[in-house]
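Chain A, query sequence.
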Amino acid sequence: MSQHQQDKFSARRSTRSNIEQHDNYRRVVLSFSQRWRLIIRNGGSKWVLQHRASPDQWQSRDSFSQAKHVPDAIRELVGERAYQLARMWTVRSARTRF
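Chain A, predicted structure.
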């Protein structure tokens, strides 16, 4: 990769995006691994589980209107460790408005 390409890549990563498919989307709540993350949509009224579709683009896998439903879906799709992280997040998010 040339220096010019590295500079463009670096600038793009440091700028937060409002487009949820982008790698640098500003409303990421949790990152479970390099392949899975949880984002907020619609001003905090909807949570979306995404997986990486390409090196810098994400694709929605499931969405939730209530935070309490997030951990069980994460356990099924991502695994036990991510489930534990999501459970901790759910308890905290119940006390906090996004």
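The beta strands are 28-31, 36-41, 46-54, 57-64. The longest strand covers residues 46-54.
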